[in-house]
Every structure is written in C-alpha cells, then in structure tokens.
UniProtKB/TrEMBL annotation, chain B:
Taxonomic superkingdom: Bacteria
Keyword Endoplasmic reticulum set for record: no
Membrane topology: Multi-pass membrane protein
Official protein name in the record: ABC transporter permease
Molecular-function annotations in GO: transmembrane transporter activity
GO CC annotation, single: plasma membrane
Record organism: Georhizobium profundi
C-alpha cells in the first residue's frame, strides 16, 4: 500500500477509536443529534481548513484567515444594516473581496519572493484592522435571508438536525478534494509543494498557481466568514482570534505534511472532526474544563508530527533498501 | 561601534521620523517632566510599554538568527505569568516566585529546542505545538480565572521606578545590553550566525549546532518569561487568555523592522530594540495624535508591507542590476570621451 496513505488512515483510525471510546462512556454520543451538531459547530472551521490544506500542500502558510473570517462577519453585518442591498449580493461582494485579498497576498509572495509567513502576517493585521475600522461593536444580523439559512435543516431520524451549513462544509470538503487530487491546478499545487525549482522544470506556471492558491484560501476564508456569521447571527471584529492556528492544527492532524507536497483534503475533515469530538467529549463529561481541549490538541499535533517524521524515515529507509 | 551604528541608521532614521511625525500631531509628545518621584511624559511611557515586546524581541532575534522562529513566546508569557501569580498567592517569597517563573520559561524553551534540534521538526511547527497547548497549561494553573495578587514587591517589577525611571525600562535595556555584550564580546554570536547560515556546514566545522539551537530557544523562553513577569506584575494579575496574545507577532515584527532577515545568518539586537521602540511609538502615537486606535492594525500592516518591499531579495536584485547597468554606461561614456 502507498505509504503516503498511512497518516490519513491513522487520522481516520484515531477518530473512529476516539468516537468508540466516547461511545463506551456516553452511549448518547452516537445519536444523530450529536453528529448533526458536530458538523454544524465545526462548519466554519472545516471550510477554512480546506483552503488552508491547499496552501499547506503547496508549501505555504496563510495566517490571515482568522482575521478574514472576522472581517467577513463585520462586512456582512454593516452592509446589511447600512445599505438596502440584498443579502445574496452582499455575500457575492464579500467573496470577491476576500478572493482578491488572497490573490494580492499570493502576488506579493511570488513577485517579492518573500516568505508567505510574513506576507500573510501583514494580511492578518490588515484584515483585522479593516474589521475594526468598520465597527468595534458586535452587530446583530437580522436579515430574513440569513434567518432562513439559519433555520434550514433536515430533521434526521433521532431528531438530529442536519443544518445547511453542516452540509455545505461536507460539500466544500468534497469539492476541495476534487480540486486538489483530480485537476491540473491540484497537480501544480502538489508540484509546488515538492519544490519550486522542480515545479518550474515540470512546466508549472509558478506565479499564476501561487496567486490562485492564496485567492482560493481567501475565498474559503470568506465563505467560512459567511457560515460563521450565520452560525452566530452577528458580526464582531474580535471574533475568531487564533482560528488560523486551529486550522493549521486541523490540517496537520489530518495527515498533511507541513512542508508541503503530501496530504489529503479528506484528512483535514477528520482533523476538524477529531478536534470537535474532543470538545464534545468535554461537554459530555462536564467535569473537565475547556482548557484541556487545547492541551489535548497540542499533544495530538505532536503525535502526528512525530508519526510523519517516523514514516518519512521508514519510507526513505525502504527506498534505500529497494 | 561606528560600523554597528551605521548598520542601524535606517531604523534610527525611521524612529526619528516617526517621533517627528507624532510631535507634529501632538506637540507635547517629546515633553518630559519630573514630578518629584518619577519622570512622566509620553516618551517615558513608550520606553516603559515597549518592555514586553523588547524583551521578547531579544530572544526572538537569536532564534531568527538561527533561521528559526518562535511562535510560542506569547504563550510562554502567559505560562510564566500564571506560575508567578500562583506562586506569589500561595505564599512563596519573591525570589522563589521569580525563580519558578523563569524556570517555566527555560523549560518551555528546552522543549521547543529539543523538538527543533533533536527531532528535526521545522521551527514554525515545533513552536506551534506549545503555542496551542501552552495557553491551556496557563489556564490549568490559573484554573481559568484571572489570578490577582496584592504583593507590592512583585508589583514593583511592573510599575516601580528606580531614580525616576520605570523599572520595566531598566530591565529590558539591561537585558538587551547584557545579551548583546555576551554575543559580541564572545564567539557566541558568531556561532549562532554560523548555525543559521548552514547548520550542517557549521557542524562539520566543529560548531555544536545542536547545543546552540537548544540554548537559543531556551534564551527565547527565558526572555518570554521575563516579559510575562513584567506584564503580570504590571496589572497585578495573570490572565491566561489574554496575556501576551499576539505579542509573538509583534516581536517578530520588531526583529524584522530592526533589519534582521527572517532567513537568519546575521543579527542585530540593537536593531530589534529600535524595532520594538518603533512599534510602541506607532501604538502610542496613534492614540496621542487622536486617531481612533482602530487604525493601529491597518497602519502596522502598511508598515510591514513597506519594509517587506524594501527587504525583498527580488527588488534588491533588480536594484543591483540597475546599479551595475548605470556604472557600466558611465564607464562606457568615459571611455568614449577618452577615445575622442
């Protein structure tokens, strides 16, 4: 079997084992209510993590996404409050803005040959600052269109709610997986993650691909912002501080290698769900406090990095012997 | 001395320009008065408030010089602050409290250093682990509350004055000077730069790169613990959620503004310190000049962008190309003149 599949299978395995252990202690955790909530509560994280996966697969990093999500919520709330524009148009405008923002960062990274880390750090300040400049208060979204999305759910057997945003997350993950593993763009992303020189020799248009990668991440962050504003029903410039790092953690736990070039988008979904599962377990238990989430996620992160290191060494060893 | 001054000239000019700009909007900015016990004035305030970022930047400069990065410093601040507040409220004396907090910082650095140097994880990922988990650990210590205390000796570190100067200012200046002297008066600085330029080559040349790397991360943890102690003593409380939040990014920014390349290989602590002062002057200046503080982040982003463009290897290559082109033309013209 392809050794590159090992991290992905481990992720899925850990998720299933974890879910089973939780089930032994709290049989209710298998109910469709919990499953539905798991999808709904983590929808915004899942969507932004898909964008992050593509960026990391290309060997980059995008620190701006948390700020972009906050900006999106504030932008939607302010536009709906102060103008008469219909909600769908506002959403489209937002997605265009965030994609353009991502594209601009991609262009800077390529044209100036600067580390993605520092360019997207500037982007992080800029997006958060733009959100602050729009408002410093939390603004409620009372638009009927948003209320309709909020209340759109399918009642699963067992009274679990499969919400529209939960389904959207799964759809985005599937679309991201197709994009990464079945298109020419995806092949370019993987090639770039393997090494820029190699990618160039393979005939990849490095500049265009870099711009597209960060534009896609911006688009996903904008979409995640829409979902987050639906989820919370408001826009707040201080929201989702640190989400970029949670998303990176989800990508790594999902089995994608942070140096780029190897990984699967589906793994990211399981990374997000594993993190959600820890949170759910803590809620069920009630006696453990939420800070354990951070510690456990940190330990999982370490575990996966060590696992990948070990696997890389094993495969290198195998290749040397063959 | 003159050469090192020459190197930080752009940073000094930027700082001077900023001070002039802020003074233009807020004429009282450069006024300093003495009220019988302490100096007061916006400049003194800037010098005091830059303490956390400046302290972090000392450690961060060394880490970045080895081509690394330490994302965990903000979290280590929170941990050290939580440890200090916990120790002082449970009746430890001041020396024991400080020792425990600094030990926590050293332990965090040791952890990061081992992940980077022994296991070979890239620094950004290795320190991300502590950045994620560390805030949880800090919350574990404070049990999720803001741990307050009322020990005046400890509070002195955050808000006391010595000969009218705020104590945090003296602390960060002393730390920066000590570390810079240690780096430049011994071979340590050279060894760190060698490790940053090429770890494998420096190891072959006899530098114990593994030990250097671990030591650098421990220094960063130590500086972060100092910053955490100052921040905690200043507000007389440990806030595990917000202490040091985003300061890792400000520290990196201070180092980069200070003229240090993120690609490592050479460093200037003086530059990083001026970088920290520039950041704090912007923060204070925006407030004093009457801009809403919401503009703060956007202005900072603009500043980073300008510095990025100036530091870009592509641009400097273009500039170099232009310069050679001009000098070639000049020689050609001179030759033609001579010929005619």
């Amino acid at each position: 079997m392809n050794p590159r599949l090992y991290p992905l299978l481990t992720t899925i395995g850990i998720f299933i084992v974890g879910y089973f252990l939780c089930y032994l202690q709290f049989p209710n955790i298998l109910s469709t209510r919990v499953v539905g909530n798991l999808l709904t509560d983590n929808a915004y994280l899942g969507i932004v993590a898909v964008g992050m996966t593509i960026v990391i697969l290309s060997g980059g990093i995008d620190l701006s996404v948390g700020s972009v999500i906050a900006f999106s919520g504030v932008f939607i709330a302010v536009m709906l409050r102060d103008t008469d524009l219909p909600a769908p148009l506002v959403i489209v405008m937002l997605l265009v803005i965030t994609s353009a923002f991502g594209a601009a960062m991609g262009w800077l990274i390529h044209a100036l040959a600067m580390p993605a880390f520092i360019v997207t750090l500037a982007g992080m300040f800029l997006a958060r600052g733009a959100a602050y400049m729009l408002t410093i208060d939390s603004i409620a979204i009372t638009d009927p269109f948003f209320a309709a999305i909020q209340n759109a759910y399918w009642l699963m057997p067992g009274r679990g709610r499969l919400t529209l945003i939960g389904v959207l997350m799964v759809v985005v993950v599937l679309a991201g997986a197709l994009l990464a593993h079945r298109t020419r763009f995806g092949a370019s992303v993987f090639a770039l993650g393997g090494g820029e020189q190699t990618a160039r020799l393979m005939g990849v248009n490095v500049g265009r691909t870099t711009v597209l990668i960060y534009a896609f991440s911006g688009l996903m962050a904008g979409l995640s912002g829409v979902v987050f504003s639906v989820y919370t029903g408001s826009g707040y410039p201080l929201a989702t501080v640190g989400t970029e790092l949670t998303a990176i953690a989800a990508v790594v736990i999902g089995g994608t290698i942070l140096t780029g070039g190897a990984g699967y988008v589906i793994g990211t979904l399981f990374g997000v769900l594993t993190m959600g599962l820890i949170q759910t377990y803590l809620v069920f238990d009630g006696s453990l406090s939420s800070w354990w989430t951070k510690i456990v996620i940190g330990m999982l992160l370490l575990l996966f990095i060590l696992l990948q290191k070990g696997l890389l060494r094993l495969t290198a060893f195998g290749a040397a012997r063959a | 001395m003159i050469r090192s001054l020459q190197r930080i000239t752009p940073q000094l000019l930027t700082l001077a320009a900023l001070v002039a700009l802020v003074t233009l909007f807020f004429p009282n900015f450069i006024s300093i008065s003495y009220d019988g016990a302490r100096f007061v004035g916006p400049i003194v305030d800037v010098l005091k408030r830059s303490a956390p970022v400046a302290l972090l930047a000392v450690g961060m400069t060394l880490v970045i010089a080895t081509r690394g990065i330490d994302l965990s410093v903000g979290t280590v601040m929170a941990i050290a602050g939580a440890v200090a507040a916990y120790a002082i409220t449970s009746g430890f004396g001041l020396p024991a409290t400080l020792a425990l907090a600094l030990l926590a910082g050293l332990a965090a650095g040791l952890w990061n250093g081992c992940l980077v140097a022994l296991i070979g994880i890239q620094p950004i990922v290795a320190t991300l682990i502590l950045m994620t988990a560390g805030r949880g650990i800090a919350q574990l210590i404070t049990e999720g509350r803001i741990l307050t205390f009322s020990n005046n000796d400890f509070a002195f570190i955050g808000s006391g004055t010595v000969y009218g100067m705020p104590f945090p200012t003296i602390l960060w200046l002393a730390t920066a000077i000590l570390v810079a002297a240690l780096m430049r008066r011994t071979a340590l600085g050279l060894l760190i730069e060698a490790t940053g330029i090429n770890r494998a080559a420096s190891a072959l040349a006899g530098v114990n790169a593994t030990v250097i790397l671990i030591a650098v991360y421990m220094a960063s943890g130590f500086c972060a613990a100092l910053a955490g102690i100052v921040a905690t003593a200043d507000i007389r409380g440990a806030d595990a959620n917000n202490a040091g939040l985003w300061l890792e990014l400000d520290a990196i920014l201070a180092v980069v503004i200070g003229g240090n390349s993120l690609l490592g290989g050479r460093f200037s602590i003086a530059g990083a310190m001026i970088g920290a002062l520039i950041i704090q002057t912007i923060n204070t200046g925006i407030v004093l000049a009457g801009f809403p503080s919401e503009y703060n982040l956007v202005i900072k982003a603009g500043l980073v962008l300008v510095i990025l463009v100036m530091q870009s290897p592509n641009l400097s290559a273009d500039w170099f190309y232009l310069k050679t082109l001009i000098s070639e033309r000049r020689t050609a013209r001179a030759e033609r003149k001579e010929a005619s």
